[in-house]
Amino acid sequence: MLREQIAASLEVAFSQQGFAEPSVAQLKMACDVSLRTLYKHFPSKEAMIVGALEYRHQRYLDFLLETSPEKGLASVTHIFNKLQQWLEEYAPHGCMSMNAMAAFPDNELISQAVTQHKEQVRLLIGKQSLREDLATPLFLLHEGVSSAWPVLGEEAVASAQNMVTKLLKETV
């Protein structure tokens, strides 16, 4: 329970401040725990980042599936609507996972956490679409929206949803 609370606080801190900015002392304050308690659960700054990413991953998957309609086109459209809501509310600067990899390109633990997250999102989209053969193209549209959001905003989502509809209707 305490580990999850710390991970939630770390997620907020990294989301708001990025990965280079907050020192471990600042992260300790953001989590409202002692340095000893923070290091007990996350023994390095990289472990803190991974903990935050893992917490965010589960929160994101749960968020995408909230009030999801039946699987198929409606479910994938719902995922892109939820993606827009997520970007507006929680990720105005794009994907936190990709930002972590950009900040720590050579860190194997962070790379593994991001890779696992992305693979699970790809599989979820494939499953929800009922077209697992289209999991990768649909995932690429999802990732494109995340990357383009800071520049294109809602236009990125609308364009991706248009392509999702074409892809799912034309390949039936």
UniProtKB/TrEMBL annotation:
UniProt domain HTH tetR-type: residue ranges: 1-60
Domain of life from the UniProt record: Bacteria
Species for this entry: Vibrio coralliirubri
DNA-binding region of this protein: 23-42
Any GO molecular function: DNA binding
Protein's name according to its UniProt entry: HTH tetR-type domain-containing protein
Matches recorded under InterPro entries: DNA-bd_HTH_TetR-type_CS, Homeodomain-like_sf, HTH_TetR
Keywords for the protein's UniProt record, in alphabetical order: DNA-binding, Transcription, Transcription regulation
